[in-house]
Each structure stands twice: as C-alpha cells, then as structure tokens.
From TrEMBL:
This is Aldehyde dehydrogenase family protein. The keyword Oxidoreductase applies. NCBIfam families: AcylSulfactDhSauS (NF047625). Pfam families: Aldedh (PF00171). Keywords: Oxidoreductase. GO terms for molecular function: oxidoreductase activity, acting on the aldehyde or oxo group of donors, NAD or NADP as acceptor. It comes from the Bacteria. It comes from Solicola gregarius. Residues 15-278 form the Aldehyde dehydrogenase domain.
C-alpha cells in the first residue's frame, strides 16, 4: 500500500469514528430538544451533581493530578465544586426553552433554539472542571456535546463521562447527550470540529486557530498573562494576601492568575515585604538568571515548571529557596521576547515591576499584553474608583478586576457580577469572536417573531437637525 493510499485510509477511519459519535449525538439531541424547561434544567442539575458530589469531585481531582502531573489535588477538588456550583447558579436563573423574551413595544417575541451538536475542546490543566463547565452550558441550551480532551486529560474526562452518564440515567435522559473522544488525537479533534455544528475551544492557540479555520462556527479564547497594579493607596496586606492566594491556587494552572504585579514606587518596598510575608521569595540577579535558563532552555517555556510546586521549580533550576515559600518573585523592568518573564508562565513565578506614573505604567502593561495576553484581563488594587476607571478606559482588555484575587474573580465569583466560566473570550484583540465570559447564551440560536407595530419612521429633521445646527449645514 502506498503512503498516499495509507493516508487516505487513515483519514477515512478518522472520519468514520467521528461520524459515529456525531450520529449518536444527533439522535440524542433530537429527543432532548422536545424537553420543556423543567426537564432541561433537571438534566443540567444532574450533570452538575456528577462532578460536585464530594466523592466524585475528589476522585476526579486525584486522577487529574496523577495523570497530568499538573496542579494539586486539594485545589482541583475545590475548583471542581466551586466552578460548577457557580455555573449552575447562573444557569438556573436563565430561560433557554421556548419563549425567552417579549418586547411588546417592538412587537417582538424571541424563541430559543438549540444549535445541535457542540464540539468542546478542553485542556489538560483542568481536565474535569472545564469539560463539565462546557457540557453544562451546551446542555442548558438544548444541545448535545462531544468532549475532546487533551491526551493527558483523557482518563479524567472518561471518568467524568461515566459519572455524567450515571446521572443522566437518573433523570431519564439519553446517555449520548454527552460523549467524549476516548483516545484523543489531533486528527480526531480536527475532524470533530468539521462535523459538529458549533465548536468551543479552551487551551492551545493551535487548537483555537484550527477551530476558526474548520468551517464550523466557533468560539476560542486568548492567552492569559494577567498584569495587576498595586496603587499607592492600596491596602497592601490585603493585596498581597489575595495575589498570593490566587497565584498559588492549583499551582497557577489558571490562565487568569497574576503573571506580573506592578507596584507604585511610593509603596514598592512595603508591598514586596507584604508579598514576602504572604509566602513569596524574591530572587537575586544570579538566581533569576538560573531560573530563566531553566524555564526557557531553548526559548520555549519548559513543561518541567508548568503548574508545579515552588520546591519542584527550585529543584529544576538548581535553586535553594526557604522552606515555606509558596511562590517565587523576579524583578523586571522591560517586556517582549528578550524578557521572557514578562510573558505567561503558568507557574508560581510572579514578575515584579515598579511604577510612579500611571500613564507610563499603563503603556508598559499594554505592551506586555500586546506581547502575550492580548485582550484577556488586568487588575488593580486601589481605594480610588477613578484609578480603576482609568485602567478600564485605557487598556484593551475584556476585564479589569478591582481589589480581587484574579484567578478567582476573572472567571466569575460569588462576590462580583461576572458569569462563572472556565472559557474567557479576549475579543478581536486576541482574534476571538467574543470579549466576555462564555455562557449558555452563546450556545443558543434565536428565532424572532416580528409583528406589525405603529411606524417609527423618523423625519430628515429628526435625524440631521443636530448635525446641521452643530456644523452650520444648510437644509
């Protein structure tokens, strides 16, 4: 058999495997779309319970860490429960079946309709929480979902799928509403993208680009690299505690964890001391050079430091750090390819900058985001709402968090108004189609019934009167 013939046969096998999954999903979805809102919500509750139930949340967390080597069990357990419960809170508040909005003054009635079969591509960093999160949103909108996990996360995803199917049986829903590629590969993932009705991708930018070029409508997310300011008037102890908690959670698997902190010159020394008190260890120049070489040995970020404990990172770099260190700090004053600490690190390494002029600080932060993290997010610790507004007005980001632990607040929190999600759009700044937190509404089609109303046709004077008066344009 020639190489070309073998390749064609392999391609047909891949297509056939995916087609079988999609056909089963379509059969299940056709039944599901006949459900009323109560039954849909029962299905959503069941799938949420599949991961929230403490024993299952623990088993999933243990398997995730064992098989991916990323993060830690206690934080993954907390993430499995907290993210799912927050998402369920948001979902239970919304309508997604039948009439979802009436606008009498416009004569409009809006009806929700499902998209069909959703392909959900998920990363190894959160191999249970992310698939569950996407499945909940897709199901709330009446769709079936096929999960495509990373190879490292496949075992965790399969365990989650077994729990989900047990709960689907409890509520009498078709088991094929949620499926997964059991032996994930690039070829199977890309074929799934082509055959599904909608694609949502969290993870590598290669997969995001593949989704957008698949010919199927898609939502992808951008790279994280969150910079956070500490203003001169900030509560330094509170800021340091929140940054430390966020930076160390699950060993920084979250793309929303602080990657750099920008401290006002007037409080720089005091803020660094607070960060030290919260568990940070500031490297000297010699140690910094050794860490940089270990983290980027060939110019690319080493997987040996991704989502690892500070002790593991220190051992990897040949560093001696104090017992009790929970995160590592390095000082920096520039950004870009020649300054890799300015980029996303997915590790418990925090880059520290100082500033005195807010305009200059924001210009540098925008440069950092343009280097890595375009559109994603930023934060500020301050007592001044005016300062916070300046950050939001100046930076090209989708979210600005004020006085919050970034990894906990960015994807939704019980004490802010952002929707719970593990998929955060970064807008056209990052080549994304959305600049908000993913929600079930992104998985809906909408039919609008339009009736005749009293005409609202404006006159020429209504439309151009102000323009003519302002610029002296003759009628």
């Amino acid at each position: 058999m020639s190489i070309a013939t073998r390749a064609a046969a392999d391609g047909r096998q891949v297509a056939d495997r995916v087609t079988a999954l999609v056909e089963r999903a379509r059969t299940a979805q056709r039944e599901f779309e006949t459900y009323d809102q109560r039954r849909v919500d029962d299905v959503v509750d069941a799938v949420a319970w599949a991961i929230v139930e403490p024993g299952r949340a623990q088993a999933l967390a243990e398997l995730a860490v064992a098989d991916t080597g990323l993060g830690n069990v206690s934080d993954k357990y907390a993430k499995n429960r907290r993210k799912t419960m927050g998402t369920l809170r948001d979902l239970q508040a919304g309508r997604s079946v039948g009439v979802i909005r009436e606008i009498p003054e416009l004569g409009l009635t809006e009806y929700a309709k499902p998209m069909g079969v959703v392909a959900a591509v998920c990363p190894s960093t959160n191999p249970a929480a992310t698939p569950a999160n996407k499945a909940l949103m897709a199901l709330k909108a009446g769709n079936a979902v096929i999960l495509s996990p990373s190879p490292k996360g496949a075992s965790t995803c399969q365990l989650l799928l077994s729990y989900i199917r047990e709960q689907l049986a409890v509520v009498g829903a078709p088991s094929d509403l949620v499926q997964a590629i059991d032996e994930p590969s690039k070829e199977l993932t890309y074929e799934l993208m082509r055959q599904a009705d909608f694609v949502v991708v969290t993870g590598s930018q290669k997969n995001v680009r593949a989704a957008y070029s698949s010919g199927t409508p898609a939502i992808g997310v951008g790279v994280g690299n969150a910079p956070v300011l500490i203003d001169a008037d900030a509560d330094l102890s509170d800021a340091a505690a929140k940054i430390a908690l966020s930076k160390t959670f699950d060993y920084a698997t979250s793309c929303s964890s602080e990657n750099s902190v920008h401290i006002h010159d007037a409080v720089y020394d005091d803020a660094v001391e607070e960060l030290r008190a919260a568990g940070g260890y500031l490297l000297d120049e010699h140690q910094r050079a050794r860490l940089q070489q270990a983290m980027w040995p060939d110019g690319s970020l080493s997987q040996g430091v991704t989502a690892q404990s500070p002790a593991t990172i220190a051992q990897h770099a040949g560093l001696d750090i104090p017992d009790g260190t929970t995160f590592i700090m390095v000082e920096e004053d520039a950004y870009g390819p020649e300054h890799p600490f300015s980029g996303e690190k997915l590790s418990v390494v925090l880059t520290v900058y100082r500033w005195s002029d807010l305009d200059d600080a924001l210009a540098r932060i925008q440069g950092i985001l343009d280097f890595q993290g375009a559109g994603h997010s930023c934060g500020i610790h301050t007592r001044s709402d005016d300062r916070a507004r300046q950050v939001a007005e100046r930076l090209r980001v989708a979210r600005v968090l004020v006085n919050q632990a970034h990894a906990f607040g960015n994807g939704g929190s019980f004490d802010n108004g952002l929707g719970f999600t593990l998929t955060m759009g970064a807008g056209t700044w990052a080549g994304n189609s959305i600049s908000e937190n993913l929600s079930y509404r992104h998985f809906l089609n909408t039919t609008r019934l339009a009736r005749v109303i009293e005409p609202r046709e404006p006159s020429e004077a209504d439309l151009f009167g102000h323009y003519r008066r302002r610029y002296g344009v003759d009628a």
